């Protein structure tokens, strides 16, 4: 087994095809195909299902991919260690967040200190955040439910209650509060399954003897916000994420308080990376202040 064979396999798997892997590695497609073929022949194992133009890892390929993800991530960490003087002048920090709102003040200070670092932020629910960290597709996650396992390093940001919200011209815009019973009878606009906000609401409603059935299910917080702003129903969000929107009014929920804990997390095995470490340090100092 050679390094170049594992590298060829890894990039075909993460890029989703031989041609894209070749482009990423600045090699020819025949060279990539040859390295993968030799790896499969040497160990008499099929690593990819090849159906027309679609290439997907087999069960064995998926297991190997989990190993090569760790392998190449460790290689990247070694590179960062050896070139630490350059690590904070260039590089990329990948963040996946259930709400970018919680990041704004941290990002501002980070960018002031390290203007050469490219930061990518993409949205996702709790399940997406966790899976992206485990698959090494993100360096840092932001989510509203602190994981219970020991795999993560956690920096707590805040803890705020879940509130309901409606458009300013909705008949309920003047309501001082809404009970779980009242909400169960109203048209609800809720996030997709996998959202911790939705899970907390449904769990509490069930515990109190009510059922929350969404009239509209939307993927992503911004989609819910826009639908509610149109007057189509009632949405839910943590108070910290409500923000400033002249089209919307928040309404307290008359029920046992449901708190959403917002936190930064990363895999402990990756917390030693220079970019991750300085970002978490900034977050800790701002949370403490």
From TrEMBL:
Q: Which residues form the HTH lysR-type domain?
A: 1-58
PROSITE patterns assigned to the protein according to its UniProt record, in alphabetical order: HTH_LYSR
| Listed Pfam families | HTH_1, LysR_substrate
What does the UniProt keyword field contain? DNA-binding, Transcription, Transcription regulation
Family in the record: Belongs to the LysR transcriptional regulatory family.
- NCBIfam families associated with the record: phn_lysR
Name of the protein in its database record: Aminoethylphosphonate catabolism LysR family transcriptional regulator
Which organism encodes this protein? Aminobacter niigataensis
Lineage of this protein's species?
Bacteria, Pseudomonadati, Pseudomonadota, Alphaproteobacteria, Hyphomicrobiales
